[in-house]
Every structure is written in C-alpha cells, then in structure tokens.
Amino acid sequence: MSAVGDGPRDHPLLRGLNVPPLGERLQNISVLVTKTLVFVGTVPVADPQAPPGPRARKLIYVFDKSTGARIRDIELEAFSVAAPMTYMHRGKQYIVVATGMGPNSEWMALTLPSPSSGQ
Predict the structure, then answer these.
(1) Can you give the three-state secondary structure of the chain, one letter per residue?
(2) More confident residue, 85 or 114
(3) Which residues contact 90 (CB under 8 A, 6 or more apart)?
(4) How far apart, in whole angstroms, are the C-alpha atoms of residue 40 and residue 116?
(5) Which of 5, 81, 86, 115 could potentially form a cystine with 24 if both were Cys, beta carbons 3.0 to 4.6 Å apart?
(6) Is the C-alpha dihedral spanning 57, 58, 64, 68 positive or negative?
(7) Contact, 75 vs 59, CB < 8 A?
(8) Using CA atoms, how far apart are residues 56 and 103, in angstroms rounded to an integer?
(9) What is d(CA 4, CA 60) in angstroms, rounded to the nearest whole number?
(10) pTM (2 decimals)?
(11) 31: left (phi over 0), alpha (psi -120 to 50) or beta
C-alpha cells in the first residue's frame, strides 16, 4: 500500500519530522493497472480554508505494482478527468488520459522514448 500524494508537509506540527508521503485529500481518483505498473490520476479537493500558495499539481502518479513504491510523478497541463487507458501502436505502448473540461478537454498521450532513439 502507498499513499497517493505527499500530503500536508508544511503543517506546523510536522516541522522537523522526516515523514513519508502522507497522501492528499482527493475528490477524484482513477487507476490503470498494467502488468508491472499502477497509474493513478487524481484531482485534489479544493480547500477554501487553505492559505494562498502554489496551486495543486496536476499529476499522474506511477507505482511499482509488486512493491507499491512510487517511481514517478508525471506532471500534466490539466487535471486528469477519467481513468488512464493504454494501447499499442506500431509496437509502442502509450498511456492516454482525458484532461480538462468542456471546450478545454483534450486527450494526452504519454510514452517512453524507444531504446534505439538514444534519448
């Protein structure tokens, strides 16, 4: 089991403590499970009591399925609004997520560079 998100690390009662990720308060969570990975798209709850500060990050979290370790945070341009999907095209695997709302809706496709590209 792993927490989704880092949680309230700036809370005064946690100052000076070395705590692991505590998780976020979320209003929407969507999951894609592959053979070895778990992709989690999230939308944080808007907190009107929160002090002004950085806006909530628009992330898909990637976990190792066998250990639960968080291995990557993928920052998106908009919040994911549906479960990620996966497909193969010409031998390459893609992860696709719907983002935004209304006229700002988009599909965002993510993939790894091919080993032969040198990137």
Answers:
(1) CCCCCCCCCCCHHHCCCCCCCCCCCEEEEEEEECCCEEEEEEEECCCCCCCCCCCCCCEEEEEECCCCCEEEEEECCCCECCCCEEEEECCEEEEEEEECCHHHCEEEEECCCCHHHCC
(2) 85
(3) none
(4) 28
(5) 5
(6) positive
(7) yes
(8) 21
(9) 10
(10) 0.72
(11) beta
Closest by CA position to 29, among listed 86, 91, 102, 97: 97
Task: Provide long-range contacts, Cβ within 8 A and 24+ apart, for 67-75.
Answer: 68/1, 68/2, 69/2, 70/2, 70/21, 71/37, 74/110
CA 27 distance to own-chain centroid: 14
Over the stretch 66-91, which tens digit does the pLDDT of each residue have?
A: 999 999 888 888 888 888 898 888 88
Selection from 21, 19, 40, 15 nearest residue 29 by Cα: 40
